[in-house]
Design brief:
- The complex is a heterodimer of chains A (106) and B (261).
- Chain A has 106 residues and is of the alpha+beta class.
- Helix content of chain A is 65%, strand content 13%.
- In chain A, helix 1 crosses helix 2 and helix 1 packs across helix 4.
- The two termini of chain A are 27 Å apart.
- The relative contact order of chain A is 0.15.
- With 261 residues, chain B is mainly alpha-helical.
- In chain B, 82% of the residues lie in helices and 0% in strands.
- Chain B contains 10 helices and no strands.
- About 7% of the residues of chain B have low confidence.
- The chains are: A alpha+beta (106), B mainly alpha (261).
Chain lengths: 106, 261
C-alpha cells in the first residue's frame, strides 16, 4: 500500500486505539499493526510528537515481567483532536469515493 | 546487528536531542525489541522490522521538528558546540528572543539618533516659529490698520491721545521680552555647545584610555609588570566616562528652557 496513505491515517488510528483504554508502546504498535501494515519503528516518533503536542499524557506503571511500562493516555485536547481528524477523514474519504464513483458511472 | 549495536547507532543519530528525550526514545525501542523477542522472534528479526536506520532516525527527528540533516553522527562535537539544538523546540524561541533584542536595540539607537537630530534642529525650528509668530502679529496689525483705514471716522473716534504712547510702550515691552527670549536661547545654545564639546572630548579620551587598557591587559597577560599603568588607565576610563555622562546629563532641553523663561 502507498506509504503516504498510511502515514496520513496512522495518526487517527493511534488516537482511536488509545481512546478506549490507556496502552503502552508495544501494545499500541501491535494494535495498530492489526489495522494497517506499518513499520513499527515509525509509531514511536508519532507517539512522541502527539505527547509533545499535549494530545497524550504518559505515566509509568510497573509490570509483572520486565521494567515498568510507559502508558499513553488520551487527554481532553487529544479527544477533540481525534474528533476533528475523524470528521476530516470522513469528508475526505467520502469525496474521494464520490469522485471515483462518478468517474466510473460517467 | 544486535540490540546494543542498534541502540548505539540510533543514539548517534539522535545526538541533537537532549539527554532525557534520547533516553526516553531509546528505552521505548529497547523495550519493543525485548517484547518482540519474548513473543518468539529472533533479535535480528526484531531489529530488521524497523527497516532502514536512517529513515527511522529521520522520522523520529521529524517528530521533534528537527531537520534530519542536522543529525550528523558526530555526537560529542554537536552537543558541546551547539547547545541550542539540544532543545529542538527551544532553538527557534531563542532565535526569536535574539531577534527581539536586536530589534529593541535598533529602536533605541534610532530613537537616540532621532533625539540628537531633534536637538540640532530645535534652535532652527524655534527661530522659524518665532519668525512666523512675528510675521503673523505684523499681519494682524496691518489688518487692524486697514480696518481703521476703511472706517476712518470710527477709528478716529476710538483712537485717543493716550493710546499712542501706550502702544509704543507695549511695543518696547514686547521687544524686550523677545530679546530676553533670544538671550535665554543664546545662553542655552552656547551651554549645549560647550557640553557637546565636553562630551566629545571626554568620550574621545575615554576611548583612547579604553584602548590603552586593552593593550595593557594583553601585555599583562604576557607577564610585563604593568599593573600600575593598567589601574591608572582604568581610572582614566572611569573618570572620563563619568565626565561624559555628567555633561550628557547637563545638556539643557527645551522644556527646561521654557520653565526658565
Amino acid at each position: 500500500m502507498n506509504a503516504q496513505f498510511k502515514k496520513g491515517v496512522l495518526e487517527l488510528i493511534v488516537l482511536e486505539s488509545v481512546r478506549k483504554r490507556d496502552m503502552y508502546g508495544y501494545e499500541l504498535v501491535v494494535e495498530v499493526s492489526k489495522v494497517i501494515d506499518v513499520n513499527e519503528g515509525t509509531i514511536y516518533p508519532l507517539l512522541k510528537r502527539l505527547t509533545n503536542e499535549k494530545y497524550f499524557e504518559t505515566y509509568l506503571r510497573e509490570s509483572t515481567e520486565g521494567p515498568p511500562r510507559k502508558y499513553y493516555h488520551l487527554t481532553a485536547a487529544g479527544v477533540l483532536y481525534r474528533d476533528t481528524m475523524e470528521r476530516e477523514w470522513d469528508a475526505f474519504q467520502q469525496s474521494v469515493c464520490r469522485f471515483l464513483k462518478e468517474q466510473k458511472d460517467g | 546487528m544486535d540490540k546494543t549495536g542498534f541502540l548505539k547507532e540510533l543514539e548517534q543519530y539522535l545526538a541533537v536531542l537532549n539527554e532525557s528525550e534520547q533516553k526516553d526514545i531509546l528505552d521505548e525501542y529497547a523495550q519493543h525489541i525485548d517484547m518482540k523477542m519474548e513473543s518468539g522472534m529472533s533479535e535480528q528479526e526484531a531489529i530488521g522490522d524497523f527497516g532502514n536506520m536512517e529513515e527511522l532516525a529521520a522520522d523520529i527527528l521529524e517528530a521533534y521538528h528537527v531537520n534530519p540533516m542536522y543529525s550528523g553522527k558526530k555526537k560529542t562535537t554537536w552537543k558541546k558546540e551547539i547547545p541550542l539544538l539540544n532543545q529542538a523546540k527551544e532553538g527557534p524561541k531563542l532565535t526569536v528572543k535574539g531577534l527581539e533584542l536586536v530589534r529593541q536595540l535598533g529602536r533605541k539607537i534610532s530613537g537616540g539618533v532621532h533625539w540628537l537630530g531633534g536637538q540640532i534642529v530645535k534652535p532652527f525650528r524655534w527661530m522659524k516659529e518665532t519668525w512666523l509668530k512675528w510675521q503673523k502679529k505684523r499681519r494682524d496689525k496691518k489688518k487692524e490698520h486697514n480696518l481703521q483705514v476703511i472706517s476712518p471716522a470710527e477709528g478716529k473716534k476710538k483712537m485717543k491721545v493716550g493710546e499712542i504712547p501706550g502702544k509704543i510702550v507695549g511695543g518696547i515691552g514686547q521687544m524686550m521680552i523677545a530679546m530676553v527670549h533670544m538671550l535665554f536661547w543664546c545662553i542655552r545654545w552656547l551651554w549645549n555647545i560647550c557640553m557637546v564639546f565636553v562630551i566629545v572630548l571626554a568620550g574621545g579620551f575615554m576611548l583612547m584610555a579604553l584602548f590603552c587598557t586593552g593593550t595593557l591587559v594583553v601585555l599583562l597577560a604576557q607577564g610585563y609588570p604593568l599593573i600600575g599603568f593598567f589601574i591608572g588607565c582604568l581610572g582614566v576610563v572611569i573618570c572620563t566616562g563619568g565626565i561624559a555622562a555628567l555633561a550628557l546629563g547637563l545638556i539643557r532641553r527645551k522644556q527646561e528652557a521654557i520653565e526658565h523663561a
